[in-house]
Design a protein that fits this description.
about 90 residues, alpha+beta, Arc Repressor Mutant, subunit A, 3 strands, about 20% strand
């Protein structure tokens, strides 16, 4: 299973944090269409729950939580486009 760069970032974040909101995705990860990345991950088999939460200032934002691991993120090499684990490029850390 290979992810686009943004899908890999979102999935890795969800794997290591309790949840992600649209605000967090925009500010910390520079992902501006989080709902679309979530939908794509769900189509690929990820189980993600969602709920509306209220921020400290009263704004309502969607919060997403990874509830099941259907696969593991395998990011692509930016140079050759292959999965990093199969990539032969010297400057890519594994």
């Amino acid at each position: 299973m290979t992810f686009s760069p943004q899908q890999a970032v979102v999935y890795d974040y969800l794997s290591t944090h309790a949840a992600i909101t649209t605000r967090t995705a925009t500010r910390e990860l520079e992902i501006y269409r989080l709902s679309e990345r979530i939908r794509e991950l769900e189509k690929m088999g990820a189980r993600i729950s969602r709920r509306m939460v209220e921020t400290k200032n009263g704004a309502r934002v969607m919060e997403y939580t990874l509830t099941g691991y259907g696969f593991r993120a395998v990011p692509k090499c930016p140079e050759c486009g292959m999965e990093k684990r199969n990539c032969g490029c010297n400057n890519i850390s594994r």
